[in-house]
Amino acid sequence: MSAGAYIVLNLPLICVRVFLMKEINTEKLVMGFWAKLPKPFFALAPMADVTDAAFRRIIAKYSRHGEPGGLPEPSEALVHAHLAGGRRAGGPDVFWTEFVSADGLVSRGREALMHDLAYTEGERPIVAQLFTANPDHMREAARIVRELGFDGIDINMGCPDKTIEKQGAGAALIKDFKRAQAVIRAAEEGAGNLPVSVKTRIGYNTNVLEEWLEVLLETKPAAITMHARTRKELSLVPARWEEVARAVKMAKGSGTLIIGNGDVRDLADAREKALATGADGVMLGRAIFGNPWLFDATRTTPPTLAEKFDVMIEHTHLFENLLGGVKSFAIMKKHYKAYAHGFDGAKELRMRLMDAENAGMVERIAREFLRTAPNIA
Ligand SMILES: Cc1cc2nc3c(=O)[nH]c(=O)nc-3n(C[C@H](O)[C@H](O)[C@H](O)COP(=O)(O)O)c2cc1C
Description:
Bound molecules: flavin mononucleotide
CATH topology of the largest domain: TIM Barrel
Strand order of the largest sheet: 1-8-7-6-5-4-3-2
Shape: globular
Largest sheet: 8 strands, parallel
Strand content: 5-15%
Number of domains: 2
């Protein structure tokens, strides 16, 4: 039989097969809360030992006015002005937890990781980020995350940390396409009706965006965050947003959302980058340091020093109450560098804060500074 005759005779069967494949593929695209987000949306990046349970609550409170977790509404006029654009008054539109080891979650050491998965209703929608190179562990950990009530599961495929990479996880998965797909598919199995997303980079040693994105898209994740640098580049070169634009083009029609990430300064910068690249969303990381007001688009004036210090003190007490027994107080020092920055006497103040050992000491140091330098606020 000639090839032509074969195709004609089997056409109905081929059509049914293609139709079924399409059906099955479309069914696998679980979008969950992602489908309800505004465009472009703005997400808070996962940052280990930074965006912990305490800091996320502070961010929700000072960036999400008039919503659960946020302060009461700001002036009606401000809300109106903002909502005229059809958006909520505050953000972020999505929260991420710090990354959590899926291997650890399915081990006997699980309890020790639960503080990294603590969240409040005010942080919804919230995505739990997991890392592993083991598909079985990912499947089981995804089930645990689902039971904990998260809105989504994100897989870390971009972390350059040597201890993570040694396990074959994080950015190391960019070098092992097959395993990366197996890990995502396992997460999708364990996640049930929860959407699964991936956060990654444009390559390992070199830019392999095209091949890598195609591999990822085959697994039908709800969203892919593209940190627009390779693993080798770490954060040492400017993020290449033209690669985000390429990713958007490649993902067109797949249903998977593309989130751009890297060096975004503030909401205005995020909006500009979304417009320029067509990204569905933008993720902001380091810009949140010392600035939990970052996602409050209704804010027209920068916080005063007194406001900043009040929040720094509140943040420190919350950290001590929620995480004091489980995390080192040294973690808070990163935040002090950012809160106490850009005014006369900041350097001396930072030095004093670096020596503080608890929230009480931080409060005393900060209040005394304000008392003795009244002209600054
Ligand atoms: C202190 C720190 C911790 C981070 N931890 C994580 C993490 O747990 N998971 C992750 O996917 N990315 C992590 N990242 C990367 C950020 O999510 C983000 O991709 C990167 O900082 C670039 O975005 P930015 O320029 O807006 O900061 C971390 C970055 C920093 C600075």
